[in-house]
Structures are given as structure tokens and as C-alpha cells.
Amino acid sequence: MKKSLAAPFVFWLSAELVLFAAFVFADSAAAFGTFIVLLIAAALSYAACFYQRKHISAEVSLPPTAEKNTEISGKLSIKSSSRLPILKLICRLDSHNHLTGEKTSTVLNLSSAPNAGSEAVFSLSSKNCGYITVKTENIWITDIFGFLPLRVREFSSSKAKTTVLPETFATEIVFDAVPP
To answer: Structure pTM?
Structure first.
């Protein structure tokens, strides 16, 4: 996650430094105004994240059973009751096979309109049979530029469970002698 936040931060910081240098060396009022606007936009956007993080809920869904060595398609639904749009939401899903102890983690990026929800489809697979639990471990909301993450602490976490079954033969029942 830190790598995905580094690129927007470097871009924003370099833009701020160029604007500040243009103000200092060229005495440009427009560069100083843009410098201040970008600082205020980052601060206001981060303040909006504090409001939005209290209005987020998450739900994970999986099919009840799946075969081993095949992809299992799941769905993460995010609902926002905030009056502001969510530009970038970063969700970490953790899956755990209780039989083998295998653990994996997936990161999904979402956005949402005001008073609406959004969905993301993810896939996972298991080489071994077992009972798999997938849950939303952490959710972060970022500012408008995408580099100041704020952890959503009070979201209603969701778990989904599925059972990975072994590969079996096809069941076929044939009635040769049917009584009258």
C-alpha cells in the first residue's frame, strides 16, 4: 500500500516545490496563489475524509462451495451514507484456510458517489480443500490527491465463508428397472 501512495505524494510535492520556486525566483503571484490553493485543497480534502470515514460499511460475499484448483469469484460491496463522494477507498481483504493455515491478502481500490455504494469483484483459489474465511481487515480512505490515507476504524466489518471441496467423479443415477 505504501508504494501506491508514494507516487501521488512525489508528484504533489514536486508540483508544490516548482510553484514555490517560481514564486521565489520569478516573483510570480499566480504561482504563489496556485501553491496556496493546492495546500488548502489537500487540507480540506483530508478534513472531508474525517467526516466520510464514519459513514462507510463493507460487505463481502462468496459462493457457499467451490472446487479446489479453480478460481472462486467473490464480491466486495461498499456502502457510503456520506453526502460527499469518496474518491479513493483502499480495502484489504484477508483470506484464511482453516484446514491448512494458508493465508492470503488482497488489496482493492474503490470509489463511491454520495449516498451510494460500489462493488468490486475479486478472485481467489486454493490448492487444498478446506474452510475459507474472507474478511475486510482494514479500510483506508485517501484525500483528493491520493497520498494521505486515513484508516476507517468504525466500519461494520463483514466475513464471508466458503468450503473448498475435493474433485470428485460425476454422480449419475440410472434407473433400469422401474416398478409399475
So the answer is: 0.75
